[in-house]
Amino acid sequence: MDIYFIRSGETFFNYLDKMQGWSDTPLTDDGHKDSYQMGRTLVILGETSENIYCSDMNRSVQTVTELNSGLKAAGGKVLNMITMPELRAQFYGSFEGQSKKEVYKKIAGKTVEETLDEMNANQMQDKLAKIDPKHLAENSKEFWDRFGKGIEKILSVETKPVIVVTHSAILTAMVNMNAPFLLNQVESDNLSLTKVHFDGKKFAPKIVYYNEKVEQNL
Predict the structure, then answer these.
(1) Per-residue confidence at 17, pLDDT binned at 50, 70, 90?
(2) What spatial distance separates the first Cα and last Cα of the chain, rounded to whole Å?
(3) Whole-prediction pTM value?
(4) Among candidate residues 133, 143, 56, 60, the one with its CA nearest the CA of residue 95
(5) Which of 8, 21, 130 lies closest to 67 in space, CA to CA?
(6) What is the pLDDT of residues 65-109, one digit of tens each?
(7) What is the structure's pLDDT at 149?
(8) Contact 160, 49 (CB under 8 A)
(9) Higher pLDDT, 72 or 217
(10) What is the DSSP string of the chain?
(11) Rounded distance, CA 20 to CA 97, Å?
(12) Pairing between β-strand 2-7 and β-strand 162-166 as defined by DSSP bridges
């Protein structure tokens, strides 16, 4: 089965380039507008589940709400939103809300891109968890166990392709660990589309494409 992952709309922490795992800032005006416009293009995906899944973070809920508004305006059927805490981004513990640039300096003394040249996404998350002074951040196993179980719940009940609104760090990690040659840029664009295929009901992602822009049917 295929899952279409859509990165959420732009938030204020995105705009300010801050770490945003379980922290939650609302969508910017552009985030609302672009999510609505993206919704108007969803019909190009063809037949999908009547459900749309997202994390329980407010930025995800706002994105789905705008997607549905755009979809309805384009003559499509509004999708049933299902929120799941398992679909949250990685938890960064003490580093939540801090400057991305400064956090990655603490991890490897380099930029995110340079760091990924030296270690994979799992190693980066494990290092961040290790240096968290409050010992709150998730390590990679904790994250994948949680997120993987969430995806498996979806795979166990759905029979048609599904749309999942997700977060950039998840997409980066999933592509880096399963198809690093497709990681044309480290952080996916807001409201970009990443298609992933799953055989069976287990979390074993096969990346079809990453960070694709959808032409807006205005």
Answers:
(1) very high
(2) 29
(3) 0.95
(4) 133
(5) 8
(6) 999 999 999 999 999 999 999 999 999 999 999 999 999 889 888
(7) 98
(8) yes
(9) 72
(10) -EEEEEEPPPBHHHHHTB--SS---PBPHHHHHHHHHHHTTGGGG-S--SEEEE-SSHHHHHHHHHHHHHHHHTTPPPPEEEE-GGG-----GGGTTSBHHHHHHHHHSS-HHHHHHHS-HHHHHHHHHHH-TTS-S--HHHHHHHHHHHHHHHHHH--S-EEEEE-HHHHHHHHHHH-GGG-SSSSPPTT-EEEEE-STTS---EEEEEEE------
(11) 6
(12) parallel
Tokens 């340079």, located at residue = 114
Look at the block and give the residue holding tokens 């480290």.
Answer: 186
Contact 138, 90 (CB under 8 A): yes
Q: Residue 145 pLDDT more than 50? A: yes
